[in-house]
Amino acid sequence: MQDARSALSIPQAFALAATQLGDRRVIWLLVKSILISLVLAIVLGVALVVLLGWGIGAMFGLDYDQTVPGVGIAMVAVLGLVGLIAAWLAWRIVAMAVLQFYADEVVELVEAKFYPALSPRDLPMGEQGRIALRGAVRALIANLIALPFALALVFTAIGPAVVFAVVNAFLLGRELQDMVWVRHMKDGAAAPLGFSSRFLLGLAVVGLLAIPILNLLAPFLGAAAATHLVHRAALRQGKIDA
């Protein structure tokens, strides 16, 4: 294997991350994070449908308990479709937030195989929860801010997808770097990845999240790839010791 201090490209980082998918510990981590993420995404989607149903009932003066029968089969279909779309969109935010909660395990699995000499600090569960919550809130706020711009470009067909891809690439690149670096940062040292590396890392994960089946693996692959990129850059810059 090449020297740990050498540069690493985005494709190489993801290729190294993929080599661990057969590890039983990785499989267990994937199973529990995917199940929790799916449940939370579905809950958020259902919650949106309920809120929309209540809003429609209030708007047209319908009794909330009879909202669905009152609006008819067509409205039920529309609300169901909205719920599915909402759950799909929520998956990106929820999956990354859940993975951040398990970030310690991802970093440890990667380090045990590729960087055994490194020793990250242990993060208390409360701090892990706060990091995950902050990341989810940032993602939610950023996507809500981007929504009007995406809607303004809806006539271009591809415009909304580009807006959300760019916004989430910035967000994910930063979140993935920070979830690794916070475990090794000493004396407030600046994170080692440059702007372009963070953006390309985030963009790669956004791309994987858009592909069926691979979107289930994207959070782990992104976190593991980020671990490789951050460690190689930090070692090269002398910010951590091998």
UniProtKB/TrEMBL annotation:
Domain of life the protein comes from: Bacteria
Q: What stretches pass through the bilayer?
A: 34-56, 68-91, 140-171, 199-226
Query: Topology relative to the membrane, per the entry?
Result: Multi-pass membrane protein
Where is it located? Membrane
Q: Which UniProt keywords apply?
A: Membrane, Transmembrane, Transmembrane helix
InterPro entries, alphabetized: CysZ/EI24
- What protein am I looking at? Cysteine biosynthesis protein CysZ
Starting at the broadest rank, the lineage of the source organism is: Bacteria, Pseudomonadati, Pseudomonadota, Alphaproteobacteria, Sphingomonadales
